[in-house]
Structure formats: C-alpha cells, structure tokens
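During the second half of the funding period, the structural biology subgroup turned its attention to how the target accommodates small molecules. The most pressing case was zinc ion, which had performed well in the primary screen but for which no bound structure existed. We therefore specified the complex as follows and requested a full 3D prediction, including the ligand pose.
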Amino acid sequence: MLFSSIPGLEETKSRLIQAVKNNHLAHALLFHGPEGAPNLTMALALATFLNCENPEPEDACGKCASCQKMGKLIHPDLNFCFPVPGAANEAEKEGAGKKTDVLSSWRDFVLSSPYSNVHDWIYHNGFEKKQLNISKGAARSIIQALSLKSFEGGFKIVLIWNPEYLNIAAANTLLKILEEPPEKTLFFMVCSQPEQLLTTILSRTQKVLIRAFTDQEIKDHIVEGGLCTAQAADQIAPLADGNLREAYRLIEQVVDENTAKFRDWMRNCFGLEIVQIIADADGFQAKDKEGQKALLLTGLNVLRESLLKRSQLDQLMRTPASDRMFVSDFALKAMTETKLFDLYQLLNEAHYHLERNANAKILFTDLSFSIAKVLRRKEEVLNPQN
Ligand SMILES: [Zn+2]
C-alpha cells in the first residue's frame, strides 16, 4: 500500500512523512477515524514507507523487494493482529493449520477491500453467530514474534486492527511491551471507535486522527478509477458522506434512479394510493438489502437538502442540478420543518431496523403509511422564500 493509492488527505500523509524524517514517530500509534476513512490504508502506507529500500521524498518506491512484500502483506516483519472467534484462537495456540487459513483470509480481505469494517470481516469468513476477540494467546504470539530479530533489518511492525476487541487479559499482556518496546519496533493500532479502547492502552499511544474523505476526494477517486461516470459520482459522493466503503457500495446501486423512485414513492404516500403503495413495497422487497438501504439514504439526503433549501442555505446544497427541481418543490411546497423532522426520524428508524434484518415488505408498507400520515397532516406550509 502506497500513500499515493489513498485519495487525498495530503496533510495527514505529509505529517507522517515529516515525523519519520525528523525521527519523531512515536513507537505506538493509534490511527483512528470514522468508518470508511483510510485508517488502515494510512497505517499500511506508513509501514511500507518505513521499510522501503529506496524511498522517494513523499512515498515508498513501490518496486523494491520490501515494497513488493508489503504490497502483498507478506513482509516477515509486518505482524497482524485482528479479531477472530474464540475457536480460531485455540487453533492459534496449538499452531494448527487454521492460523494460516485465517491469515491468508485476512490478506485477501484487506487487499480486495481495504476500507471494510468488522461486519464485512465477519461476513467474509462466515463468522456470524460467533463472538470475536483478540485473545491473550494472540498477544503472546506478538510478544514472541517481537523477541526475534528483524528478518530484513528494517522496522518490526505490529498492526492491530480493531484493538477494541482486545480482551482484558490480552491488553494486560501487551501493556509492558507497549510501554517499552524493543528497538525498531512499532505498534500501529487501527480503529474507528477509540472510546471503546481500554484506557491503559489508549494512554500508551499517540493518536493519529484520520478525517473522513471530502466529497471531492471521493469523486476524483471513483471517476479516475473508472468506477463510474462523473455524473454518477456527483450523486454518489454526497450520499457516501466521506465513507469510501459506502461509496463503493453505492456505485453498485443506480443512484439516479433512486431519487426518482423516492419522488414517486412520496407522491404515492401523499395521495394515499394504496394499490401503488403495496406495489412499491413489493418493489423494495425485491431489491437486496444494500439496495433498500441506499433508497433510504437517498431519502434522508433529500430531507437534509430540503432543510437547507428551507433555511435558504442553497450554497450548502449538494444535490446535482438534475434533481434540484424536485428537491426545491418538495422542500418549499410540501414541507414544514416539523414534517421534515418527523420524516427524517421515520427513515432513520427504518434504516436502523433494516440493518437488523427486519422484514422489508412489512417495514416499507408500515413506513409508507407513517409517511402518508405526516405528509397529509394539516400544517400551514409557509414558503420561507416568499
Ligand atoms: Zn520500496
């Protein structure tokens, strides 16, 4: 992983590079940022840069033997630690074949989708219904690995992905080595919920805050990567809201269709077109879960944009030109602030329940009637722009 493969965040990259050049890098770093931000990729890029044999001023070379191995996540001085179910930990202790299986699964997972979260990891391995953690056994193997000399003469790096999953015994095992690590040894912890970390761990790390991507960074990245058209990127970037994982998922959805679908759905709810509402619910159910969630996210986005429109903050609106008319009419002719707020809550709750596997047809039918109730409520619609 190179710094150049991460879109944007130039300020973070150069801060890290400067710290290396000035010898100011702390031996335990906590890369933390929101989901879908380059928390993991930034840590991997720094690891690659540190051990590169011919580093360029702003990045690793990407060509030397070390970079090649880092690129495949098989560098012998790069040790990984990540949450696994209890049973896999047992296998780890016994040194059984399962350890290699889960490590190669980890490499596939990171290389194919470096912006993924723990749920994706669970899904990737079929770990559903299992309790994940980073065990004392795993912590012990780290210490053991660090007691050996560096294989290639560079930095020995331990990357702990989601240290929130360290159980107390494992954390206690690591405290001493975190405090006084062997020479040329670095700990990179990567997480999105630092508030869940044990304070004993937290206090021994230097924080590297990774911000979310900007809309522009996401847009450039997905267009330059040939993942979608510039027009689609205009719609995807604001919906992804800085989360590249979300952006990748949305690319697979047809977003421009979603705004039109949302518009028609709102009309059917307002007109209390029962037959249509049921047909809509059937249509929603036929989509996969990501598609259903994407539609709700589009709806939430329309509501957010409507609020901006009503607050005369047009300059903050991110709706592409093609959908402006609808949002503007919706905001000014059909909405009040209370109605917007109520709809926002309804869609948000529906999104929450979908995430937890509610039945889509029942959920969308109920939701449609609740929306109809809000839309048809008698409230004086004052156009704030008159
Ligand atoms: Zn290199």
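Two results from this model are relevant to the next phase. The pocket of zinc ion is lined by residues 52-54, 60-61, 63-64, 66-67 (CB under 6 Å). The first helix runs from residue 10 to 21.
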